[in-house]
Amino acid sequence: MISREICQRVLHKAVSTGADYAEIFAENTVNHSISMIADHVDAVRDTVVAGASIRLYKGLRSVMSTTVDTSESGLMRCAEKAAEALGQGSAQIDIVLKERLFGDIHPVKVVPCTASNAEKVAILKDGYFAAKEYHESITQVQGGLADVDHNILIANSEGLYTQDRQIRTRMMISAVAEMNGETQTGGANPGRRMGLEMFDLIDPRNVGIHAAKQAVTMAGAGYCPAKVMPVAIENGFGGVIFHEACGHSLEASSVAYGLSQFAGNSLEATSVGVGMSQMCGKLGKQVANPKVTAIDDGTIPNAWGSCNIDDEGEPMQRRVLIENGILKGYMIDRQGERRMGMKNTASGRRQSYAHETTSRMTNTFIDNGPDKNEDIIASIENGIYCASMGGGSVNPFTGDFNFAASEAYLVKNGKICEPVKGASLIGNGGDVIMNIDMVGQDLDTAQGMCGSTSGMVPTDVGQPLIRVREITVGGQA
After folding, report:
1. CA angle, 45 as apex, 128 and 110 as ends, to 5°?
2. Are the CB atoms for 333 and 344 separated by under 8 Å?
3. Residue 373 phi/psi, 5° resolution?
4. Pairing with 65, which of 102, 142, 399, 454 sits 20 to 30 Å away (CA)?
5. Number of alpha carbons in the 13 Å side-chain half-sphere of residue 96
């Protein structure tokens, strides 16, 4: 993409006013998508994102400049602007770049950009029409198939020069069912860090059937009662609650500034980059039920949120965040490392060269526990079983959240009964993980796009079936 020699000269220019660290991040990304509605292909889109950013550090201060001109002259102008913004000083760093090859643990058999649109449309139609034909109450189906070929280059003043190629594929099917004048929507959105061979593992027709079945089930459901009760949350996308209500609070972008429920009161300390014992005051303490172990693992082969390296060039890691209820660590990028005085955990991620890297999740999940699924359901006398979770909102500082259940059922006397709609879970992340008193053994993950200050990045959420002993369920009073 950009030669090692050019990168070396550009980095020397970048540190010329006294930066203690400089980094080039360059990318060339091709996004391809096909969408269907009303039984026809609605659109075929190709977009290219190409450019570079130069980021400088001097202590805790950072400066970033971007350019779409990745010629040597364009990069030099970008470096000069960043250096000028940093201020006056002189270069203190001798930079010698050495290429590093981290390998690829995410093999791709069928590179999507080499497949024809006709082949992709055929896959999409299988899922689309499986949903359309599932039940007479299905009134509308939308489908999409997207693939990304994301190529990045990272070079920095510590001597690193490396590249990575990240290919992802995802199918999206949503279906609308109408019964008795009311409509409900169901959806399924599987994705993998792989090419079209993903559909050797995932039958597109099953994706469509799953979306349609959920819509039909909810269209025929009554309303959920509103009260405090025990709740069982299914595996896969049920993990979105931990991701949102707890995961963001374990990122250095929250912890390092004292804006996390899992940090100490350290706003004054973090403003000068000291006081690690204060800002990380909950490390080593119990923050969850002893049955809860939570992990962020970017090394899982071909998982949606996995990478070989993070967007700062660090080799990806498996990070144990909470172990048997004890807080063990955070997700830390380069900025967090400087502010917190803790080791970088390869958690730096960004949507594109135009976004500044920050600490982010990859594949984040509650690990398998000691309980059997049948025992979890049998333990609930009067409660709710959430088969699938939807969207919600959370305050990472307080951990307060509100999530909708996209598919839910009443549980009576230890048995899953009729479906109910309008269910939402209202609570606090710190309280909920303390109240998870049963954890099953069928860990599964689901795919999403997570938004934060560094843009949208692919992340997996996951968990086995769990029971929350007590939580406020919103519904119809």
Report:
1. 70
2. yes
3. -60, -45
4. 102
5. 0
Query: How many other β-carbons are positioned within 10 Å of the β-carbon of residue 374?
Result: 11
Please say if the pLDDT value at position 71 is more than 60: yes
Contacts of 234 (CB under 8 A, 6+ apart): 385, 386, 387, 388, 465
First-to-final CA distance of the chain: 60
CA separation, residue 122 to residues 128, 198, 402, 431 (Å): 10, 14, 39, 47
C-alpha Rg value of the chain to the nearest Å = 24
Q: Judging by DSSP bridges, how do beta strands 61-67 and 138-156 pair with one another? A: unpaired
The token pair that represents 473 in the structure block: 């369920």
**Angstrom distance (rounded) from CA 227 to CA 424:** 11
At 126 the pLDDT is 98
* 36 close to 124: Cβ distance less than 8 angstroms: yes
What is the pTM (predicted TM-score) of this model? 0.94
Spatial CB neighbours of 76, under 8 Å, sequence gap ≥ 6? 9, 10, 13
CB 364 within 8 A of CB 299: no
Token pair recorded at residue 231: 């709740």
Q: Which of 186, 177, 174, 173 is nearest to 135 (CA)?
A: 177
CA 158 from centroid of its chain's CA atoms = 28
**Contact criterion met (CB below 8 Å) for 230 and 468:** yes
Structure tokens at 239: 């993990």
- Give the per-residue pLDDT at 274: 40
pLDDT in tens, 217-250: 999 999 999 999 999 999 999 999 999 889 999 9
Contact 145, 113 (CB under 8 A): no
Euclidean distance between CA atoms 155 and 22, whole angstroms: 8
Residue 393 CA, distance from chain mean position: 15
* 368, burial (CB in 10 Å: exposed 0-12, middle 13-18, buried 19+): middle
Tokens of 182: 């009311």
- Cβ neighbours for 358, distance < 8 A, ≥ 6 positions apart: 251, 252, 253, 333, 335, 348, 349, 350, 452, 453, 454
